[in-house]
Amino acid sequence: MRYKLVKGTKDIFLNDINKWQYIESTSKKILEDFGYSEIRTPIFESTDLFSRSIGVSTDIVEKEMYSFKDKKGRDLTLRPEGTASIVRAYVEHSLVPPVKFYHIGTMYRYEKPQSGRYREFYQIGIEAIGSISPFIDCEVIDLALFLLSKLGLTNLKIRLNSIGCRKCREVYKKILLEYLKKKELCKDCIRRMNLNPFRVLDCKNEQCIRVTSTPPSILNSLCEDCKKHFAEVKEILAEYKISYFEDPRLFRGLDYYTKTTFEIVTDELGAKNSVLGGGRYDYLVEELGGDSTPAIGWAFGVDRLVLALESAKFRFPDESKKLIFIAWTTETAKKQAFKIARRLRTEEFRCEMNYEKSLKAQLKLADRLEAKLTVIVGTHELKEGKVILRNMEDGSQRKIDIEKIELELKQIMC
Ligand code: ATP
Ligand code: MG
Q1: Which terminus in the chain has less CB density within 10 A, N or C?
Q2: Residue among 93, 108, 101, 98 at smallest CA distance from 32
């Protein structure tokens, strides 16, 4: 019996794994420089946590969650995003604001698999909890841009909107409903219209996108406080020459957002062009049982970023050390070779050897593994206390003293 990957999932290995590793390690460094520390939360949580925070009438909660009962009948869900879990942890551990966390890990959504859209995918995200200052809005947007461009993505654009607070949304809801009533929408949107008309603006159906392309702007319905906040955010962005375009259709697919919302898009991804999405969520901490605390965050899809970088012909750096292969000629030499490999590994050289093959086959394997050097341990040379050092690029060979292997390798490898 042979098994296949479950639909919408993938294996990442060999020539691809360095792409994920590069994005993860570069992101970690930069996020830590910006004051964020890592948080790891469980891959599954109570279903309630997600339906409550993301919103029962959103696509994620209505259609996309991997929910199941455990053996005790508890309702659990594989996390579809990171914010809800991080806010749950923040409240549960009674953390004191300001708190800045980043997370790296897999998310699960039952979506129709296609390029850049999977059922298991990787996200890197940040959450800055505790500040209402428009400066933090700009800091997180600036960080998103800085990080994505450091990672090699060019031609980035910021879509920006403010979706106000509860008060503004009540006002806007009526205006939007008036506008939507006259439109021909998909079944989902018709059903959800009265419950949550904002969802219509985030619908992926082409007909819905077309007929709602110029909705009344929520900016005209913002209360004084939200208006001022948004104006200040834009002022700071302008002052630091961070360009953006305002998009009144940007409502995002989760209910917890308030005030500033944004996405970063790139032409490299065609129609599904959003790499990163985020916004404020000033009510969520309170919703989940904490004190009223403002917060803002974003997340980007690592798999989608890889696609964008590949499409831009970006050369992913390979950060792994060069390989040294240890080959042998006879069974006696094999034991010595094993000893040398152990010794070199403890000295932090990257070494590989093989226990089955002929010398010819071992050298072939060293080639396939792209070893830079091969140490050949032969019985004759061993008698003289020496081994052969073979340069795999030009095939040249020379004898060196066993004791001096590390010294020689250090000189060649650096
Ligand atoms: P989209 O509009 O493309 O469905 P989204 O609004 O659902 O995205 P968010 O929930 O904001 O996305 O997640 C942030 C990022 O995570 C997205 O910009 C995207 O890069 C990535 N992402 C979201 N869903 C998927 C998926 N199913 N497969 C791969 N990456 C995804
Ligand atoms: Mg989505």
Answers
A1: N
A2: 101
